[in-house]
């Protein structure tokens, strides 16, 4: 019986010992395959990190560009609210109180060379239509000259005279006539 137990133990132990003896470590091919797999995973992770960084940089650049465009639009909106220069009767000389206003327009145009303006010259109804067209032209040219002297490119500025044709305020009062003697900076 004892022999029987030993024999049974031997029969059970033999396959276990055989399996342990056959199971040596991984082969060189298996190790190389594992190293390649790890290298590919690292390369993929690095590529993903690079792509994520590029996407972040592009998104930041797009946000900066959008913010800059919004700022330009805000500046343009502000300037379009203050675009009129008023003149004395029968004069085309820019008054000192309008120089700061024109300087703001000049700064904006210099910083934004793609912007252009048309300067409209206007007059009150006194005088002949021919005289008023000529006076309106001189007023528009006075504003143009101011902008050009401030550094604005001549390709950004053009002039037109409407004379008395487009009054801002109807009437023959001194106030109405003063409102019609103007040069207007109109953005295109």
From TrEMBL:
Keyword Glycosyltransferase: no
Organism of this sequence: Alteromonas aestuariivivens
Description of how the protein assembles with itself and partners: The Tol-Pal system is composed of five core proteins: the inner membrane proteins TolA, TolQ and TolR, the periplasmic protein TolB and the outer membrane protein Pal. They form a network linking the inner and outer membranes and the peptidoglycan layer.
Pfam families linked: OmpA
Alphabetical GO biological process terms: cell division
Membrane topology: Lipid-anchor
Chain coiled-coil ranges: 28-82
Domain OmpA-like: 74-188
Record bears the keyword Electron transport: no
InterPro entries reported in the protein's UniProt record: Bact_OuterMem_StrucFunc, OMP_bac, OmpA-like, OmpA-like_sf, Pal, Pal_lipo_C
Function, in words: Part of the Tol-Pal system, which plays a role in outer membrane invagination during cell division and is important for maintaining outer membrane integrity.
Keywords from the named record: Cell cycle, Cell division, Cell outer membrane, Coiled coil, Lipoprotein, Membrane, Palmitate, Signal
Family annotation (SUPFAM superfamilies): OmpA-like (SSF103088)
Any one of the GO CC terms: cell outer membrane
Gene3D superfamilies: OmpA-like domain (3.30.1330.60)
Family named by the database record: Belongs to the Pal lipoprotein family.
Localization per record: Cell outer membrane
Signal sequence, start to end: 1-29
Name of encoding gene: pal
Protein name (record): Peptidoglycan-associated lipoprotein
Stored PANTHER family: LIPOPROTEIN YIAD-RELATED, STATOR ELEMENT OF FLAGELLAR MOTOR COMPLEX
Main location: membrane
């Amino acid at each position: 019986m004892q022999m029987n137990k030993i024999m049974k133990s031997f029969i059970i132990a033999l396959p276990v010992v055989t399996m342990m003896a056959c199971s040596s470590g991984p082969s060189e091919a298996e190790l190389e395959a594992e190293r390649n797999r790890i290298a590919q995973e690292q390369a993929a992770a690095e590529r993903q990190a690079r792509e994520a960084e590029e996407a972040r940089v592009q998104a930041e650049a797009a946000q900066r560009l959008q913010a800059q465009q919004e700022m330009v639009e805000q500046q343009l909106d502000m300037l379009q609210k203050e675009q009129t220069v008023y003149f004395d009767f029968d004069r085309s000389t820019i008054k000192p109180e309008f120089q700061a206003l024109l300087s703001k327009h000049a700064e904006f145009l210099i910083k934004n060379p793609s912007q252009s303006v048309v300067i409209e010259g206007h007059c009150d109804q006194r005088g002949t239509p021919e005289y008023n067209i000529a006076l309106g032209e001189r007023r528009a040219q006075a504003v143009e000259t101011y902008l050009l002297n401030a550094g604005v490119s001549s390709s950004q500025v053009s002039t037109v005279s409407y004379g008395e044709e487009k009054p801002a305020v109807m009437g023959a009062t001194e106030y109405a006539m003063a409102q019609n003697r103007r040069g207007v900076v109109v953005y295109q």
